[in-house]
């Protein structure tokens, strides 16, 4: 529809005084489509009048449409060069989600909006890039069904193979949100079989069925309220954990570069050549992976159970090294 509206607007704006038949012909010539309905063009003309307040009139003598205000312009035709640049840059930044239906949909919209402008894409766009990342392919049929269930608050059923349980389980689920993280898509909501909120990796969902059963969406359904203030991605537990971690060497600056949690406290302890961070989060597994990624430059100090779990993981790594 937007494509038709822009083309119709530009034809009228050019001063040709086109009638509906001429608009149908010119539209097909510009797009390469074989046909477009007369009723469709009439609806588009009404859309221009009603929703875009176009000063559109029909000149009986000239037998076609024109604008009584020569200064009127269609809203999409007023996008600035800077806006076109930022829209195109947004597409680049979203490229880590290439392989998911949401990327294709957003990319098509951005391409349409920017391509309708008579402005060349800035060479500066080549100076903005996303480093190559693993490509995750999301099943488009599953994606469409999930969107339908989100729109109507409908319960879904599906088969799932989890990270810790490779055997297939059947789930009945009330989806609250789609979570997007580093190219991955997750489904957050209420698991009826576990009687608790859960996160599922969307690419592992199989045989998804949207039921006719409605569910009540909680007022506080948003995932960020479950993270306990942490900013470590799509993971959560029921309990908020107070972490204390020491960073050494080059990791000292690294930990100061970002906000990792809402209540973080960062302290340099120069006499011990380390930087300590304290914060709260429900995402203990992600926090452990974050620490392990820093190797010998990060050591957890609390809570004790978390430190013990980290030690066990390091010891297992050492055993694997011995067995090489």
Task: Note down, in words, how this protein is organized.
- This protein is α+β, with helices and mostly antiparallel strands and 324 residues long.
- Helices cover 35% and strands 24% of the residues.
- It is built from 9 helices and 11 strands.
- It has helices at residues 2-13, 20-31, 38-50, 81-93, 101-115, 140-152, 251-256, 284-292, 304-322; strands at 56-59, 64-67, 154-160, 169-181, 184-191, 196-201, 205-214, 241-248, 265-269, 274-281, 298-302.
- A 5-stranded antiparallel beta sheet has the order 6-5-4-3-7, with helices on one face.
- β4 (169-181) and β5 (184-191) form a beta hairpin.
- α1 packs across α2, α1 (2-13) crosses α3 (38-50) and α4 runs antiparallel to α5.
- The protein is elongated.
- The model has no long low-confidence stretch (mean pLDDT 88).
Describe the structure concisely:
The chain is 35% helix and 24% strand. With 324 residues, the protein is α+β, with helices and mostly antiparallel strands.
Total beta-strand segments:
11
Structural class designation: alpha+beta
Instruction: Give average pLDDT, whole number.
Output: 88
Gyration radius, rounded:
28 Å
Query: What is the chain-wise order of helices and strands?
Result: HHHEEHHHEEEEEEHEEHEH
Descriptive tags:
alpha+beta; 324 residues; five-stranded antiparallel β-sheet; elongated; four-stranded antiparallel β-sheet; 9 helices; 35% helix
């Amino acid at each position: 529809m937007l494509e038709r509206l822009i083309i119709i607007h530009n034809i009228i704006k050019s001063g040709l005084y086109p009638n509906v038949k001429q608009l149908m012909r010119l539209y097909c010539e510009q797009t390469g489509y074989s046909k477009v309905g007369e009723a469709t063009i009439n609806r588009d003309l009404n859309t221009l009048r009603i929703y875009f307040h176009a000063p559109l009139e029909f000149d009986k003598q000239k037998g076609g449409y024109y604008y009584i205000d020569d200064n009127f312009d269609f809203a999409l035709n007023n996008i600035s060069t800077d806006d076109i640049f930022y829209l195109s840059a947004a597409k680049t930044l979203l490229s880590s989600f290439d392989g998911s239906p949401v990327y294709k949909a957003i990319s098509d919209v951005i391409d349409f909006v920017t391509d309708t402008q008579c402005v060349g894409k800035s060479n500066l766009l080549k100076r903005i890039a996303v480093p190559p990342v693993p490509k995750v392919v999301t099943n488009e049929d599953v994606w469409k069904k999930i969107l339908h269930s989100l729109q109507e608050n409908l319960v879904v059923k599906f088969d799932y193979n989890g990270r810790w349980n490779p055997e297939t389980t059947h789930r009945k689920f009330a989806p609250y949100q789609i979570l997007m993280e580093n190219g991955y898509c997750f489904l957050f909501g209420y698991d009826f079989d576990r009687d608790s909120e859960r996160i599922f990796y969307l690419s592992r969902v199989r045989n998804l069925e949207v039921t006719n059963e409605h569910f009540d969406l909680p007022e506080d359904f948003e995932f960020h309220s479950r993270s306990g203030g942490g900013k470590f991605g799509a993971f959560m537990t029921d309990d908020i954990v107070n972490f204390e971690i020491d960073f050494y060497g080059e990791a000292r600056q690294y930990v100061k570069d970002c906000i990792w949690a809402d209540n973080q406290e960062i302290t340099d302890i120069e006499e011990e050549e380390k930087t300590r961070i304290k914060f709260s989060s429900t995402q203990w597994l992600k926090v452990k992976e974050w620490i392990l990624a820093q190797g010998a430059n990060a050591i957890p100090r609390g809570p004790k159970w978390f430190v013990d779990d980290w030690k066990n993981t390091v010891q297992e790594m050492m055993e694997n090294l011995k067995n090489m």
